[in-house]
Design a protein that fits this description.
The chain is built from 16 helices and 20 strands. The chain is an alpha/beta fold and 549 residues long. The strands form five sheets. Strands 1, 2, 3, 4, 5, 6, 17 and 18 form an eight-stranded mixed sheet that branches. Helix 2 links the parallel strand 1 and strand 2. The longest helix has 21 residues. It binds flavin-adenine dinucleotide (FAD) and NADP nicotinamide-adenine-dinucleotide phosphate. NADP nicotinamide-adenine-dinucleotide phosphate binds next to helix 6.
Length: 549
């Protein structure tokens, strides 16, 4: 079915809720609101559902949280009927899943595609949001729910001459749907984050030559991907409810056990053995080896050096190995990457690594690029694996205005301030799903998405029952939450890295640690307490009651 056919034929312009974005967050939000009898319209820029998995179609794109964990948990029937084929599902398989969910629960009829929300203004006279789009739509709704994604605003750095390049250029987060054939081409890739690390081995196997321009080397662990056996899938399905309960109560939204012991208490040989075991299990298992690997620099250094040792063993050229071995940040303080033959790729004759740490790209030329020292590289294609304006980018690209016409961009000029990552003081009835100040990107995001959606849906039901017109975060409660988010982050190693968690990848972006490091389980308890205490920290107003439509 093509997107035009899927797009809602409904011509209404007034809804209980406008939901911006049709990724996993927007899809589940619509499902919940429908079930509660609220009217809602999802507005999505792309031509289909899936969000991240709709846009990021670069070669090698996969989840790095295991497929069995990275799926919705809200429907027993859905989990029973869907069968993942690999330990780490490919982007096409995840996108197929998203489409399956949308078809199965008949979500398309309330979705509008190829439409970008450009503005959302709160009207204090009517207590309703006026939402505008690039197609000239004007919707009004009691609630405006931002399911716009933490990693959806892809970003090409402001390189001089970027538009002068005569070859083909691509951003990993906006990959052409028809795919790209790099055969016979001299390709340059800028960036060595998760997207680059997944795509480099595949691009290298196709291109005539691949030049990788690396600013910061990343810690990457082997996926050890494999096909899922029917037995493994059956076992997971049978224990699904319990595994999801454990995931919801866990720090990162994944039901895994962590060794309670300190890495520093273990003898070096014992530690090596534990690390070796974690490494061989693949994925994030290495981090389970000891309790304090992400807690102290000393413990962290033991596992960081283990990984650097692996890089030195795999990469044959010692100079290249040293350039690839991360030394400027503790392991885990930038998002860990999960790869398949990433480091091995540097042993190929057609791959060159260029260290641009102290020799940045100064200009994109019609036939390649130039570095600060004057070196020029001739290229037929450039891949920008340069990441996203994370967490705030998608929100701030819209003209969002709350009470007294105050702009979200102004309120957040020094960095995002939210209450629980769900709500912003001065912006009544606007919710964010996995917003800054919530665990979001530090977790299995589907678990975090479901928790936020359920909380918002419950809140809207409560308000309907209590005839509340608006809900709005108190400035005091918000300030206290922001202080708490900052305080817990400052107790960790995270601030030691120049990561996108801190906005450090964008020149001029305020340096604020955006996600909440307190853990998914503890955070859920806090949100549940807030709701149980009559939405503590929020002001609920019942003066003007809008009839449900
Ligand atoms: P998205 O999937 O980002 O969806 C947001 C949607 O909103 C997009 O479709 C966008 O077009 C739309 N939108 C935004 N602004 C507007 C606007 N103004 N108007 C209209 N539409 C708008 N997380 C994990 O937990 N595990 C993983 O393995 C994992 N792998 C990832 C791999 C990649 C390549 C990337 C980039 C991210 C990955 N993530 C992973 C994070 C991932 O973003 C989340 O898991 C999840 O898919 C987010 O869903 P979402 O609906 O919140 O946002
Ligand atoms: P990213 O992690 O932000 O990586 C961007 C890369 O581009 C970094 O190496 C960065 O270097 C480099 N870069 C940015 N600006 C540059 C400039 N001006 N000059 C040179 N280099 C520059 O982005 P991403 O790889 O797209 O991943 C983003 C997030 O999406 C991940 O962290 C993860 O959460 C998610 N993701 C997950 C998977 C998965 O495995 N499932 C795959 C892809 C993405 P610096 O590090 O020096 O800034």
């Amino acid at each position: 079915m093509c997107a035009q056919q899927k797009t809602s034929a409904d011509t209404r312009t007034e809804f209980d809720a406008i939901i911006v974005g049709a990724g996993f967050a927007g899809m589940y939000m619509l499902y919940r609101l429908r079930g509660l009898g609220f009217s809602a319209r999802v507005i999505e820029r792309g031509t289909g559902v899936g969000g991240t998995w709709y846009w990021n179609r670069y070669p090698g794109a996969r989840c790095d949280v295991e497929s069995l964990d990275y799926q919705y948990s809200f429907s027993e029937d859905l989990q029973r009927e869907w069968n993942w084929t690999e330990r780490y599902a490919t982007q096409p398989e995840i996108l197929k899943y998203a489409n399956h969910v949308a078809e199965r629960f008949d979500l398309f009829s309330d979705m509008q595609f190829e439409t970008t929300v450009t503005s959302a203004h709160f009207n204090e006279g009517t207590n309703r949001w006026a939402v505008g789009t690039d197609r000239g739509d004007r919707f009004t709704a009691k609630y405006c729910i931002m399911a716009t994604g933490c990693l959806s605003a892809s970003r090409i750095p402001d390189f001089k001459g970027v538009d002068t390049f005569k070859g083909d250029s691509y951003h990993t987060g906006r990959w052409p749907h028809e795919g790209v054939d790099f055969s016979g081409k001299r390709v340059g890739i800028i960036g060595t984050g998760s997207s680059a690390i997944q795509s480099i081995p595949l691009i290298a196997s196709q291109a005539a030559h691949l030049t990788v321009f690396q600013r910061t080397p990343n810690f990457s662990l082997p996926a050890n991907n494999e096909r899922l056996t029917p037995d493994k899938v059956r076992e997971y399905k049978e224990n699904f409810a319990e595994l999801k309960r454990l995931a919801r109560e866990s720090p990162a939204g994944i039901a895994i056990e962590v060794n309670e012991q300190s890495a520093l208490e273990a003898a070096p040989e014992e530690r090596e053995q534990a690390f070796e075991q974690g490494w061989n299990q693949g994925g994030f298992h290495l981090l389970q080896a000891y309790a304090d690997l992400l807690a102290t620099t000393e413990a962290n250094e033991t596992v960081a050096e283990f990984v650097r040792g692996k890089v030195r063993k795999v990469v044959q050229n010692p100079e290249v190995a040293e350039t690839l071995a991360p030394k400027d940040h503790p392991l885990g303080t930038k998002r860990i990457c999960i790869d398949t033959y990433y480091f091995e790729t540097y042993n190929r004759d057609n791959v060159t690594l260029v260290n641009i740490k102290n020799n940045p790209v100064t200009e994109i030329l019609p036939n390649g690029l130039r570095l600060e020292d004057g070196a020029e590289y001739e290229l037929d294609a450039i891949v920008y694996a340069t990441g996203f304006d994370a967490m705030t980018g998608a929100l701030l690209s819209m003209d969002i205005r709350g009470r007294e016409g105050e702009r979200l961009g102004d309120v957040w000029a020094a960095g995002p301030r939210t209450y629980l990552g769900l709500s912003v003081a001065g912006f009544p009835n606007m919710f964010m799903i996995t917003g800054p100040g919530s665990p979001s990107v530090l977790s299995n995001m589907i678990i975090s998405i479901e928790q936020h959606v359920d909380w918002i849906a419950d809140c809207m039901s409560y308000m309907r029952e209590h005839e509340n017109a608006t809900i709005e975060a108190d400035t005091g409660a918000q300030d206290a939450w922001v202080d708490h988010v900052n305080e817990v982050a400052s107790l960790t190693l995270y601030p030691l890295a120049n990561s996108w968690y801190l906005g450090a990848n964008i020149p001029g972006k305020p340096r604020v640690f955006m996600p909440y490091v307190g853990g998914v389980g503890a955070y859920r308890i806090k949100c549940d307490e807030v709701a149980a205490n009559g939405y503590e920290g929020f002001a609920l107003d019942s003066k003007v009651m809008e009839p449900a439509r």
